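Support request, priority: normal
Reporter: lab tech (M.K.)
Component: structure prediction queue

Hi team, I submitted a job for Branched-chain-amino-acid aminotransferase from Sphingomonas cynarae yesterday, and the status page still shows it as pending. I've pasted the exact input below so you can check whether something in the sequence is tripping the parser. The sequence length should be 363 residues. Please let me know if I need to resubmit or if it's stuck on your end.
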Amino acid sequence: MSAPAPAAFRHDPHAAPVEAAERAKRLIDPGFGRVFTDHMAVIRYSDQAGWHDAHITARAPLPIDPASSVLHYAQEIFEGMKAYRLADGGTALFRPQANAARFRDSARRMAMAELPDDLFIESIERLVAADSDWIPEGDGALYLRPFMIASEVFLGVKPSAEYIYMVIASSVGAYWKGGVRAITVWVSRDHTRAALGGTGAAKCGGNYAASLIAQKQAIAHGCDQVVFLDAVERRWVEELGGMNLFFVFADGSLQTPPLTGTILPGITRDSLLTLARDAGLTVREEPYAIDQWRADAQSGRLVEAFACGTAAVVTPVGRIADRDGDFTIGDGTGGPVTDRLHQSLVAIQRGTAPDPHGWLHRL
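Reply from support: The job had stalled in the queue. We restarted it manually and it finished. Here are the results:
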């Protein structure tokens, strides 16, 4: 168990924040993950003091000792979430409690200190309050990146006794350049993302680092993303490099790979499962083989496929490139079920539709 949260969260405002006119220029077309706000949240942990020194401060480079544990043994976890400008002018987070719980789960798997949920959410709330002017108008959002690194200065192989938790924020537009479009996916036959007993269900940097060589191959083959198969049989479809997968069949049903410990339990994934069931669709969480994927696409049994995640939200998958032969899903552009689920989710996130599950966390 981690020590109790600190009693107070101090605010050290930026002495020279970005001028309003310059900020407005940066928000015209921010892209994704390159425009950062003025502040960041920081909380420290040690086995002796517990969680302490919680504060909002000016975003700045992080001084770190070259012997810090994270640089040698990769004890690191992170989250991804967004703050939205609502239709009524307010601001909200989407399911931050789920992010807090997953952050704790990741910390436990990586033998790191577990940040209390209320402190996780407070750090997000305070950073958004400090930098709310950085939320773009229209379809943009404020992407929030909570993360934690092992900071003990020690070269022995053991869980760190000290950690730094931080949150940075980035003004973002569309994840894909040019907006939502159907992507092409490369099937990785040489590399796997995770194995049973590994860290596949944890949101840790090592999972993404291990996926980059396959992503590089995907780009070399003219594809946008890579899809991984299971590590044992190299048969079952698992997930993309950074997104979960759904399949839509001609009978109107949906299927997605089950959470067996090798797939990240996506919050967008879980939300779409709920929305699909709310809409009366049959949803299955069952294994799906790559050969079956090809056969179903070619026969017309499979009519749509889409990827989902916090950054890209919902992205149609139009074509699969594979050394065993390429194939196209439907007409290669997406489909009505994908569009409907996408619109339903975004409407709740933006506050333009009812929120029956209480997902919006208004600030």
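Residues 205-220 form the longest helix (16 residues). The chain has two domains: 10-172, 183-349. Let us know if anything else looks off. Ticket resolved.
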